[in-house]
Automatic annotation (TrEMBL):
SUPFAM superfamilies: RNI-like
Stored InterPro entries: LRR_dom_sf
Gene3D superfamilies named in the record: Ribonuclease Inhibitor
Name this polypeptide is given: F-box domain-containing protein
Organism: Rhizophagus irregularis (strain DAOM 197198w)
């Protein structure tokens, strides 16, 4: 490693750009490594989830070192400037930076002073410095921002290069009007909705985008609130005009009335270039729009999650998906509840659509009846879909009451199928526990035969596996490296959510 030149080291460190712990270790090897790592660490230094930024005085020291002496004197009262803050820095750190995260920067600056005015003034000076030093701004998380940074002289040029923006609707609408003058080439727009009123500034910001590829909307209410009629409508109508460029759409609407249902269902077929479609809202498609979606073709679709809906709709989208689907997620019990009378037939068709149209599937949610035909088709799916890595599986008999003996028999059949036919890449299985149980003997036989494969992660909602005998068995195979992890969730929704 010591003989590698700087270009090779840079390529290696690029692969570690999200791993702050490894990058920090590389800093200490020698000067060459340090000089190579610093620009990567400081490209987006505010993004590391394992760092408590409010407890990192060295970051505050770096910011303070950039301040002019007269500014330091002006904010002396109540602020703790570090010793050595008049010394020059080893690197011009801000020149490497391509991002702003308002909350993180506020946390760092709060280290120096508890006075609101000093913090506000230092934040303002930081943005002024950043706009002068940063060659281009790529990522901007502006949640809770108080400074209208587009008024800084250099801001226009910096904002024109913005690729990703995260914001929330609690910010005044006029701020978004200001941004919309300069930020017209945003590719990723992520919005946290904190308000029940329509934010027309955000709508305007969407309208002016010329290359919007990724859009997320996440309602975040602390209680159920009544939404204004035009809150979702204006956003959806603005998005409709971006169908030519949009390839990722992720929506969670907390409160949807019939009108909003209809509008969302009406515009979905227009996003024909989607690679990712995630709708996490709790609603079902109406029959009229259901038929339109059934014939909709998403040739490039790779990830599909439409939450609460019917298997026949999901099967139709799969059939027309173009064979690129890698992740298919939904809430199994919502699907089961929506088509009680036709579940057996639709689940069989669903399995067939998967192995006929999704050869590259990696993450799969699947629900089916415990019949001989369903088990046979499921085994065929395992043999064909060799890229399968994660499986969320529900075996559910919606017709009759089922005895424990039959549940154990279903579990035995399923485990034997997995041993015979599970793809080599399969490393995580999540079991719902309605009509399925594993006896201690069958589970031990399964784990013993799993030896030599990927260490298996198992999640379940079955409380039976928390018993003493099961716990001893699981611990044994954990220590042997057969089981990587075993978790029990009380609720089925938790299995789906963390999937």
């Amino acid at each position: 490693m010591s003989s590698l030149n700087k270009d090779i080291l840079f390529l290696i460190f690029e692969e570690l750009q999200d791993d702050s712990k490894s990058l920090f270790s590389c800093l200490m090897v020698n000067r060459l490594w340090c000089e190579t790592v610093v620009p990567i660490l400081w490209r987006n230094p505010w993004c590391y989830k394992n760092i408590n930024y409010a407890n990192k005085p060295y970051l505050f020291f770096i910011i303070a070192c950039y301040l002019l002496d007269d500014i330091k004197e002006f904010i002396t009262e109540g602020i703790k400037l570090p010793s050595g803050s008049n010394q020059s820095l080893l690197f011009d750190y801000f020149s490497f930076c391509r991002s702003i995260n308002v909350n993180t920067i506020n946390n760092i600056i709060s280290i120096g002073s508890t006075f609101a005015y000093n913090q506000f003034f230092m934040q303002q000076e930081f943005y002024s410095l950043f706009m002068r030093k940063c060659p281009e701004l790529k990522y901007f998380d502006m949640k809770s921002i108080k400074h209208q940074i587009f008024y800084f002289p250099e801001a226009i040029v910096r904002l024109e290069s913005l690729c990703e923006l995260k914001c929330n609707t609690s910010i005044d609408t006029s701020y978004f009007y200001g941004l919309s003058q300069y930020c017209q080439y945003i590719q990723r727009l992520i919005i946290i909705n904190m308000d029940t009123k329509s934010n027309h500034g955000i709508v305007k910001l969407i309208e002016v985008q010329k290359n919007l590829k990724h859009f997320e909307w996440q309602d975040n209410f602390y209680e159920e609130l009544f939404m204004n009629d035009d809150c979702y409508e204006n956003v959806l109508l603005a998005l409709e005009k971006k169908a030519e460029s949009l390839n990722c759409l992720r929506i969670y609407f907390e409160y949807i009335e019939n009108y909003d249902h209809t509008l969302l269902q009406k515009i979905l077929p227009k996003f024909y270039k989607l690679k990712i479609l995630i709708i996490e809202s709790f609603f079902y498609f109406y029959e009229e729009q259901l038929e339109k979606l059934k014939i909709q073709v998403y040739h490039e679709l790779e990830i599909l999650n439409i939450g609460c809906n019917r298997l026949n709709l999901i099967s139709s989208i799969i059939k027309n998906s173009g064979g690129c689907l890698k992740k298919l997620l939904f809430r199994p019990y919502n699907v089961i509840g929506s088509e009680y009378d036709s579940f057996n037939e639709n689940s069989l068709k669903f399995i067939r659509e998967i192995y006929e149209n999704c050869p590259s599937i990696e993450y799969l949610t699947i629900a089916f009846s415990p019949s001989e035909g369903h088990f046979a088709e499921f085994e065929k799916l395992l043999k064909i879909c060799q890229n399968l890595k994660l499986l969320l599986l529900i075996v559910y008999n919606n017709m009759d009451e089922i005895e424990t003996e039959e549940m154990l028999k279903n579990g035995e059949i399923l485990l034997k199928i997995l041993i015979r036919s599970a793809p080599a890449n399969l490393k995580e299985i999540r079991f719902g526990d309605d009509d399925l149980q594993f006896s201690l003997e069958n589970l031990e036989e399964f784990l013993e035969k799993w030896r030599g494969r990927h260490a298996l992660t198992i999640f379940t909602v079955g409380s039976i596996y928390m018993g003493e005998n099961y716990t001893k068995l699981i611990d044994k195979y954990k220590s042997d490296g057969v089981i990587k992890d075993f978790k029990y969730f009380r609720y089925m929704d938790s299995l789906s959510y963390y999937f």
